[in-house]
Amino acid sequence: MATIALILAVISLALAGIAYWRSGGQQDIQELKRQLQGEMDVLRTKQKEILESTSQSIASTYDRSRQRLANTREELVKQEKAAIEGLEEQLKKARKQLEALGDKLEEYAIAARESTLEAARSAEEAISQRIRRIQARVTLLQAKGKASRAKKAETDKDLERADRLLQEAMELLREARETLSGDPAYHQELETMKLALQEATAAVRARTEDIRQRIDKVLTDTDTIINSLETDETKAAEK
Asked: Ramachandran region of residue 142, left (φ > 0), alpha (ψ -120 to 50) or beta?
């Protein structure tokens, strides 16, 4: 009896399905398919918009990086023309690495068009960090030039000029710190240079006997950061 009941139930279900299909079920299914297709089209459109937006964002970031490089290049030219003693080799090295970095930037920008978004974003972040570092490095070279002039002013007994030049060096240090604000690798070295500048300025204003030594400390600490940035860019370029 149970088997007969099951057979009858299956037959009833089949007949009900046929009746539903004949009474408009086929239209309902077609309507459901149209709705699903519409939702898929909306998702595809949104996905395309997201991809285009992200690609444009990456392209804009590369444009900003190009501008950073252009500005840094201009500053390098100014410093090279100033021909400050003691900066020649460091400026030469910075220019060489900057030009190589410019070539790498264009290489990455082209590759980004063929890469996945994740790979393109990762490459863009890496090159942007390197550009910010070389920009900060050139700013610190400018600060070193100011400190060198301050040392010369102290030798000439022009302490007012030495004070002014050290203040300008401090402002350049602030600029470099801002450029590296999202890069903690050099935080301690920047703090050490800041302290040395403060102590040198205080010595100039107090007319103490160790002014020259204090300014020499500024130059040494500045070189430490510059050398770190130079070495890190060499390592990055070799990868």
From this structure: alpha
Regions of the chain short of the pLDDT cut 70 = 1-57
> How far is residue 203's CA from residue 215's CA, in Å, rounded to a whole number?
9
85-94 LR contacts (CB < 8 Å, sep 24+)? 85/148, 86/144, 86/148, 86/219, 87/141, 87/144, 87/145, 87/148, 90/141, 90/144, 90/226, 90/230, 91/141, 93/230, 94/134, 94/137, 94/138, 94/141, 94/230
Segment 166-224, tens digit of pLDDT? 999 999 999 999 999 989 999 999 999 999 999 999 999 999 999 999 999 999 999 99
- Determine contact, residues 80/143, Cβ cutoff 8 Å: no
How many angstroms separate the Cα of 201 from the Cα of each of 113, 119, 146, 169? 51, 47, 13, 10
User: Cβ-count burial of 215 within 10 angstroms (0-12 exposed, 13-18 middle, 19+ buried)?
Assistant: buried
Nearest in space to 201 (alpha carbons), one of 213, 188, 214, 192: 214
Position 50 scores a pLDDT of 47
